[in-house]
């Protein structure tokens, strides 16, 4: 966990998504964004380099992630979809976020 942020009176933990995915830490830049996500009744912040677009795929666009041959690592994506010939991954929040009770606060508290 990178730290905590106060969002409209609720404290939520923030994780550096790049580090969580095994990459170098996100460099501090003006375009950095904290994406607020909800998993069940909990909210969490993911620090990212920038946001270039927001898309909402239709259910018929979603494709299953092909299995990794010989891989035992958990899948980091739940689904894939293509927009303008670009493949987009829908990240698995179960794989990305810490286990329940790991400091993530209820949105209604």
Which structural traits does this protein have?
109 residues, mainly beta, OB fold (Dihydrolipoamide Acetyltransferase, E2P), four-stranded mixed beta sheet, three-stranded antiparallel beta sheet, 2 helices, globular, disordered C terminus
List the helices and strands and how they pair.
Blueprint: E1 3-7, E2 10-16, H1 17-20, E3 33-39, E4 42-48, E5 63-64, E6 77-83, E7 86-91, H2 93-96
Parallel strand pairs: 2-4
Antiparallel strand pairs: 1-2, 3-4, 5-6, 6-7
Strand order of the largest sheet: 1-2-4-3
How many strand segments?
7
Helix proportion range: under 10%
Which CATH C-level class is it?
A: Mainly Beta
> Total number of helical segments?
2
CATH architecture: Beta Barrel
Q: Work out the strand percent.
A: 35-45%
What radius of gyration results from the CA coordinates? 15 Å
Structure overview:
This protein has 109 residues and is mainly beta. The chain has one domain (3-96): OB fold (Dihydrolipoamide Acetyltransferase, E2P) (Beta Barrel), CATH 2.40.50. It is built from 2 helices and 7 strands. The protein has helices spanning 17-20, 93-96; strands at 3-7, 10-16, 33-39, 42-48, 63-64, 77-83, 86-91. The strands form 2 sheets. A 4-stranded mixed beta sheet has the order 1-2-4-3. 6% of the residues are buried.
């Amino acid at each position: 966990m990178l730290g905590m942020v106060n969002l409209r009176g609720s404290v939520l933990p923030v994780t550096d998504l790049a580090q969580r995915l095994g990459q170098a830490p996100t460099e501090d830049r003006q375009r950095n964004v904290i994406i607020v996500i909800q998993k069940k009744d909990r909210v969490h912040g993911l620090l990212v380099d920038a946001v270039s677009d927001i898309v909402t795929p239709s259910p018929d666009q979603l494709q299953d992630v092909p299995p990794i041959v010989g891989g035992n690592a958990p899948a980091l994506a739940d689904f894939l979809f293509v927009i303008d010939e670009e493949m987009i991954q829908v990240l698995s929040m179960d794989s990305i976020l810490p286990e329940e009770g790991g400091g993530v606060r209820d949105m209604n508290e």
